[in-house]
Design goal:
Pfam families: TPP_enzyme_C, TPP_enzyme_M, TPP_enzyme_N. Keywords: Thiamine pyrophosphate, Transferase. The protein is an alpha/beta fold. It contains 21 helices and 20 strands. It has three domains: 159 residues, Rossmann fold; 175 residues, 3-Layer(aba) Sandwich (Rossmann fold); 193 residues, Thiamin diphosphate (ThDP)-binding fold, Pyr/PP domains (Rossmann fold). The strands form five sheets. A six-stranded parallel beta sheet has the order 11-10-9-12-13-14. It has a six-stranded parallel beta sheet with strand order 16-15-17-18-20-19, sandwiched between helices. A four-stranded parallel beta sheet has the order 4-5-7-6. Strand 19, helix 21 and strand 20 form a beta-alpha-beta unit. Helix 1 packs parallel to helix 7, helix 3 runs parallel beside helix 5 and helix 3 crosses helix 16. The longest helix has 24 residues. The chain is globular and about 70 Å long.
């Protein structure tokens, strides 16, 4: 604190900013040195600084932290080049409805529009990837802007916001902060219930349907509504599947659970035979889903003649792709109200059909597992399905699994089992950029230090972020990284073959010593090229302290059972 700010009743603006963040429950800042004035005082307010190696990874860490903690994730960055690297993670958070606060340093106020070093138009930069962007020009407005930023991020459809802080403003003297007590750093901040009459109408439609079905999306996790989702499934005897982002919102061991019903239901998918229940549905209840391309298998998955009911906090998403009875509001409140309304309807027919329905689901599940022979393959190079089977056999409900984009997410979503409603599988499915799996896992670990966190990545995506292994070691964020090393950009190669009958020259890698990289960063590492070594290696990694990388040599011809690949690629499923 400088001499001027040390006057009685005054503090620096940076102190006021730190105090305001702490008031909202912020205890972790993902950031490097800048804004230095903030990071220098943050420890006085009990905030931990997780110092990433690159800003794009830092933003993804804040994203993973927010998804697991249900609190706003905060990332900081320098102006100019560092700020530009926040665009990808903020864009992911924008599409995936994750509340983040990016605090970005600006040049000194008297240097604005003078071509100062690393000056950039941050308003233009963040305009398309944030709900709200503002600059704090006066230290007296810090509490106002922090409150506005966090409220904007956590209310309605959650998303990222940006606060721009001129470097000299953070050094200004600031009169003692207002005696505010509001805390808005959690989400959903405001829970809004749908129209009660529409709830009653939805209950009547469900009770009268011959074959109703539920699709639970990522909004169930964002609303912390997994218990309510389970209660509805049980009370109304409803078969329930999920989208990719909804993975874990439903207990997949429940006799009425269908697993992930999305774009990977081709031959070899354990959930392939669950599609029949969607085909037969005369009513589909959508909960917290944007009905996006992958979640609906390019809008071909859901039955054409079914009636739809759609619950979502964002009214612009309700009925966007499927005309529906609109239940605009918070998923938890909507599910509570709908469950209560269904108890007032005659549920005799649904209850009477439950045992037969459960038997059909069990039969379909077993048929899918029987056909997914690669899960039991001893071949070398190792099949990814076998890797997932070995991990699944050791997965417990309290474990968190994070995955990179591309194939990694699909292997996790299709071949691991959610053993409890609310188990978390964190995948970048908003924009689905490569390289985000490792930092998502580190953010998840920062949010839940007592949980085991497993990260599944491909060698292509891992190459974007392997430097963050050093962050894991330095910050004590112990995770297990399972690297699917097939030596290619798999999705790129296979999609090009399907679309064009040939592939570009950009998909092949030379051999990389990933274990050497892990050990150079101070982590453990092991290369695995025999299926029989997988189980013991995973068990040892889960039991070991510190971060461990398992570099598993996988079959380059293997691909998830993506429906559009069906019949176009041989031998890979």
């Amino acid at each position: 604190m400088n001499d001027e700010s040390a006057r009685q009743g005054q503090e620096t603006a940076a102190v006021a900013l730190a105090a305001a963040l702490r008031r909202h429950g912020v205890d972790t800042l993902f950031g490097q040195s800048l804004p230095s004035a903030l990071h220098l005082v943050a420890p006085d307010f009990g905030m931990t600084q997780v110092n990433y190696r690159t800003e794009n990874a830092g933003g993804a860490m804040a994203d993973g932290y927010a998804r697991i903690s249900n609190r706003i994730g905060v990332v900081t960055a320098q102006n100019g080049p560092a700020a530009t690297l926040l665009v990808p993670p903020l864009a992911e958070a924008m599409k995936a409805s994750v509340p983040l606060l990016a605090i970005v340093q600006e040049v000194d106020r008297d240097a604005t529009d003078r071509n100062a070093f690393q000056e950039f138009d941050h308003f233009g930069l963040f305009g398309a990837c944030a709900k709200w962007v503002r600059r704090i020009d006066l230290a007296t407005r810090i509490e106002d802007y922090v409150d506005m930023a966090i409220a904007t991020a956590t209310t309605g459809r959650p998303g990222p916001v940006v606060l721009l802080c001129p470097a000299d403003m953070l050094r200004d003297a600031r009169a003692a902060a207002d005696d505010r007590i509001a805390e808005m750093g959690y989400f959903p901040l405001d829970r809004i219930s749908p129209d009660p009459e529409r709830i009653r109408e939805a209950a009547r439609l469900i009770a009268g349907a011959k074959a109703p079905l539920v699709i639970a999306g990522g909004g169930v996790h964002l609303s912390d509504a997994t218990a309510e989702m389970a209660a509805l499934q049980e009370a109304a005897s409803l078969p329930t599947g999920t989208t990719n982002m909804g993975k874990g919102s439903v207990d997949e061991t429940h006799p009425l659970s269908l697993g992930v019903l999305a774009n990977a239901l081709g031959a070899g998918s354990p959930a392939r035979h669950m599609r029949q229940f969607l085909d037969e549905a005369d009513l589909v209840l959508l909960v917290g889903t944007r009905t996006n391309q992958n979640g609906t298998d390019s809008w071909k998955l859901y039955p054409r003649n079914a009636r739809f009911i759609h619950i979502d906090i964002d009214g612009t998403e309700v009925g966007r792709n499927y005309e529906a009875l609109r239940l605009v509001g918070d998923a938890r409140l909507a599910l509570q109200a709908l469950t209560q309304a269904l108890r007032e309807e005659d549920g005799t027919a649904r209850a009477g059909a439950r045992d037969a329905l459960a038997a059909r689901i069990a039969e379909a599940k077993q048929a899918g597992l029987d056909e997914a022979g690669a899960m039991r393959s001893d071949a070398s190079p190792i099949r990814p399905e076998r890797i997932m089977a070995e991990l699944d056999a050791r997965l417990t409900p309290d474990m968190i699994v994070a995955a990179d984009a591309s194939y990694s997410s699909l292997w996790v979503n299709g071949f691991l089992t959610a053993r409890a409603a609310g188990q978390r599988f964190v995948t970048p499915r908003g924009l689905a950029g490569l390289g985000w799996g490792l930092p998502l896992a580190l953010g998840a670990k920062a949010a839940a230090p007592g949980s085991k966190v497993i990260c599944v990545v491909g060698d292509g995506g891992f190459g974007h972020s392997w430097q963050e292994l050093e962050t894991a070691r330095r910050m004590g964020l112990d995770i297990v990284v399972i690297l699917l090393n097939n030596g290619i950009l798999g999705f790129q190669k296979h999609a090009e073959l399907v679309k064009f009958g040939a592939h570009t020259n950009a998909i092949d890698f030379t051999d990389v010593d990933h274990v050497g990289i892990a050990r150079a960063a101070g982590c453990d590492g092991q290369r695995i090229d025999r299926a029989e070594d997988l189980g013991p290696a995973i068990e040892a990694a889960l039991a070991r302290s510190g971060t461990t990388l398992l570099d598993v040599v996988t079959d380059p011809d293997a691909h998830p059972p993506i429906t559009v690949f069906q019949g176009h690629l041989g031998g890979g499923h």
